[in-house]
Amino acid sequence: MAVSLFAMFFVARWPLNSVRGDAQGRRMAEDENDEVPKLPPDARLEALDERLERLQQAEAKRTARAQPNPSDRLWQQLFGHLIGAPVGGAVIGWGLDSLAALFGHRTFPLFFLLMLFFGFGVGVRNIMRLTKTRTPPGTK
């Protein structure tokens, strides 16, 4: 059995016949010396290449994006932390209050307010961390 599997997968396909051409049986154009003939460069193709290069450069200039200001990114992060952290804390606190209400405890404003203030503290801490590690724009 092992011999038949070996013979099935590792059958030598020699000699490789290059006369057949490519997969569809086509052969390249050859002259008497079995060389592919060299074609002279066409002036139309060169002009087309130059025109294509000019158009690609013009398109690159037209679609070029301005580099964003690094201070804008910093402000967006600061406001995101100032808004996102307290809102996230408030949602978690509301969820904890709702979970406590399922078990019969009336804690509605307790967890909501605690997590709201905790989220605000986390936001301020993140802002302090961002501003401490940032270098001013334009200096490096």
Report the count of strand segments: 0
The run of helices and strands is HHHH
Helix content: 55-70%
Number of distinct helices: 4
- Characterize the overall form: elongated
Distance between the termini: 70 Å
The major sheet is characterized as:
none
Look at the structure and give the mean pLDDT.
79
Low-confidence runs: none
Account of the protein in words:
- The protein is mainly alpha-helical.
- It has a domain at 71-133.
- The protein has four helices and no strands.
- It has helices spanning 2-9, 43-62, 70-102, 108-133.
- The longest helix is centred in the middle third of the chain and has 33 residues, at 70-102.
- It is elongated and about 90 Å long.
- 9% of the residues are buried.
- The mean pLDDT is 79.
